[in-house]
Amino acid sequence: MKLHEYQSKRIFARYGVPIPQGDVAITPEQARQIAARLDRRVVVKAQVLVGGRGKAGGIRLAHNPDEAERMADQILGMNIKGLTVKKVLVDEAAAIDTEIYLGIVIDRARRRAVMMASAEGGVEIEEVARVTPERIVKIAIDPFLGLQAYQGRELAFGIGLRKELVGDFVQIAQGLYTAFVECDASLAEINPLVVTDEGRLLAVDGKILLDDNALFRHFELAEMRDADEETPEEQEARRHGLSYVKLDGEIGCMVNGAGLAMATMDITRLYGGAPANFLDIGGGAQADKVAAALRIILSDPNVRAVLFNIFGGITRCDEVARGILTALKEVPTQVPMVARLVGTHEEEGRRILAEAQMITAATLAEAAQKAVAAARANRPTGRE
Ligand code: GDP
Ligand code: MN
Questions:
Q1: What percent of the chain has pLDDT over 70?
Q2: Which letter does DSSP use for residue 379 in this model?
Q3: From CA 61, how far away is CA 77, in angstroms rounded?
Q4: Does any ligand 1 atom lie closer than 6 A to the CB of residue 100?
Q5: Residue 292 maps to which CATH number?
Q6: Which domain covers residue 180, as residue numbers?
Q7: Which residues are catalytic?
Q8: Cβ of 278: how many Cβ atoms within 10 Å?
Q9: CA–CA gap between residue 244 and residue 230 (Å, rounded)
Q10: Rounded average pLDDT over 83-97
Q11: Do 107 and 114 form a contact (C-beta atoms < 8 A)?
Q12: Is the domain of 136 the same as that of 241?
């Protein structure tokens, strides 16, 4: 789950990271009032869950409250990379001398959190990593020791920070690390962390990605969710406890188990097809869950065939088969369906589905080939 800039910065501030004063507005009038209260130059910033807002025209400087109102009026309702701006952050403007990047992510290969800093702040860090990777300094953090002060200094020296700012930088780095750990984040980033004209460090932009699997123990963070982050289908999937990711292929996949779902997508590709989604219906396979999954898959107009791949362990294949039939009654469709059921009571399961005119298969390879063929045959004429 992604947090907005204003949410991320407020969290950082609780850990001692200096942020500009400011507040959020949902109307131009509110933006004017905030600017009047701050009584100085402000920046009006679109709050949407994508990067590169600056380049897209979603960040504007305003010299007085009237201008702030006008800027907010222009930015609110703007479309940035497919997202409509519904809120703006009105912050006191910083007089920027230099822009630094400071961020932390999990490095799976090292099995550690890694903090990264770069003197090339303000621009996308992926771009810096691609063009001038030597300009990024990285430090792996021991989970039992946390970010040590000497490591913070190493980062500061590595990016050539002025000596008199090193102490503050280390505190910010440690605050960012603690915020990252305590929120169960998968990413926490300040880009840019600026050096102001007056020689102070200030977090001008902030970004936090939260680990969805840890949200159950962060009620106050879970409540910050912006519904616009997910498509209606993804929201529906989450309500039913399904893991769903939309892709752009034409074979809808319904699978129990994440690993099996990935294997299913791989083998679909191997036989020349393209998966329309990742979908893990999880353990058990109650009809209502299967029906919800089927509705979500079929709401994608690109889907030309559906591939069910079910492994019956504790879940019995005949129960799953009945679940599928009940779901099909609820969600009638002409899209061809291929099912591969393996495991407990598989013969019974297959018999039930075959009676219902579904294409069945005994192996995953066979099922994938049949699904690819069915999808091809079901393409609108004239398309290859
Ligand atoms: P992003 O484009 O979505 O990453 O949004 P940022 O908040 O990082 O802003 C993009 C750029 O706008 C920054 O790198 C700065 O150069 C500039 N910017 C943002 N806030 C201020 C500010 O308060 N004063 C000035 N002068 N520039 C700012
Ligand atoms: Mn930024």
A1: 99
A2: S
A3: 18
A4: no
A5: 3.40.50.261
A6: 96-222
A7: 101, 189
A8: 17
A9: 11
A10: 96
A11: yes
A12: no
